[in-house]
Amino acid sequence: MKKIISYNVNGIRAALKKGFAEWLKEENPDIVCIQETKAQPEQIDSESFKSLGYNAYWFSAQKKGYSGTGILTKEQPDHVEYGMGIEKYDSEGRFIRADFGDVSVISVYHPSGSSGDMRQAFKMQWLTDFQNYIKELRKTRPNLIISGDYNICRLWIDIHNPEKQQKTSGFLPEEREWFQSFVDDGFIDSFRKFDEKPHNYSWWSYRANARNNNKGWRIDYHMISKEFEGNIIGASILADVKHSDHCPVVVEADF
Fold first, then answer.
1. What pLDDT shows up at residue 80?
2. Predicted TM-score (pTM) of this structure
3. In the predicted model, what is the mean pLDDT of residues 28-44?
4. Which residues touch 3 (CB under 8 Å, ≥6 apart)?
5. Which residues are catalytic, by number?
6. What average pLDDT is seen over the chain?
7. Per-residue pLDDT averaged across 18-35, rounded?
8. How far apart are the C-alpha atoms of 170 and 218, rounded to whole Å?
9. Where are the alpha helices (DSSP H) in the chain?
10. How far apart are the first and last CA of the chain?
11. Which residues of 178-213 are buried (b: 16+ CB within 10 A; e: fewer)?
């Protein structure tokens, strides 16, 4: 069994200063999919991860201090794919994939549209292009674990106060429609496979004491291709872990 964690760390260097490496040692996952590293590979202390037994792979944005994804893994992958081969997305370091036998684990950081109309349009275009890319990939790599920050609350129960949030990026009807179409393509929301209760969130605003009041959003997911569903053993959200405005989300799988 492998324990896979997805974690938007909101800056890997900041997270390390807040005890991320010590927590990692204790939690001891097999694979960690990281988003929002906000660092170039040479700025990341990969040695601290190596000393814990992890191979570290980073895909950074060209713009310094922005975006970026990574994968930490105890088992060496057969192959690591950096990016999707689409320049406007790859320049933002949003996608990295590691292959283990016939299983692929992806760390993905979907764009946010909250800064304005241009980025919202960029996000919607990304969602279409990402879905098409995954459809193609699945023809040769059907066993997919797509872990990351999707920047969308999928269901009504995935956000506090949904009635008032429907004009907010991350909970727009067209974003949730996209997510439903992605599920309809044959992907499992692993957490919801095991837990259908509301008030389970993975991100909280730094404003208005949102985290202490659990006024959050669930925007971090492990989406599992239908072909691999039988291998999923459990899923959870580690809401008490605090190195970021996000918390880690877990899936356990047999492979």
1. 98
2. 0.98
3. 97
4. 28, 29, 30, 31, 250, 252
5. 149
6. 98
7. 98
8. 10
9. 12-17, 20-27, 46-50, 87-90, 117-140, 173-184, 190-194
10. 6
11. bbeebeeeebbbbbbeeeeeeebbbbbeeeeebbee
Per-residue CA distances from 155 to 152, 195, 239 (Å) = 9, 13, 19
Please name the residue that has the structure tokens 């837990």.
195
Contact 75, 98 (CB under 8 A): no
Could you tell me the two tokens for 197? 């209760």
Cα–Cα distances in Å, from 209 out to 58, 81, 140, 222?
33, 39, 46, 27
Q: How far is CA 243 from CA 12, 19, 93, 144, in A?
A: 9, 7, 21, 27
Residue 128's pLDDT is 98
Q: What is the DSSP letter of 103?
A: E
- b vs e for 17-56, b when ≥16 Cβ sit within 10 Å of the residue's Cβ? eeebbebbeeeebbbbbbbbbbbeeeebebebbeeeebbb
In angstroms, rounded to a whole number, what is the distance separating the alpha carbons of residues 159 and 172? 12
